[in-house]
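Summarise what follows for lecture notes:
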Amino acid sequence: MPFEELDAPLPSDPTPPPVARWLAFVGVLVGGLLGGLIGYGIGGIVGGNQTMAALGALIAGIACAVGVGIVATLTLRAMNEWKTTVHPEDSRFADRDNPGSPSDVPKDPA
């Protein structure tokens, strides 16, 4: 078999860094707050009273928070998958002590 000597890379920790999770959480809060402010303004203009303004703030705040939450979740997943595995064929991570490894091949300057 042609690839018998290759071992599959071990998966890394699946959780994103805590700083990224906190930034995503703050982003969801800010998105919900700004959406609520926009909804309050639009509800006040369209409805003309405080009830419609409050209803607009609630609906828009929830909608914006959900939207930002979806984007934050997808961003955290993509960030986590970006460098999850290291493939044995990747020359950037080849063994430097092994002469003749792919890392010893000169890089094309172009």
In short: The two ends are 36 Å apart (CA to CA).
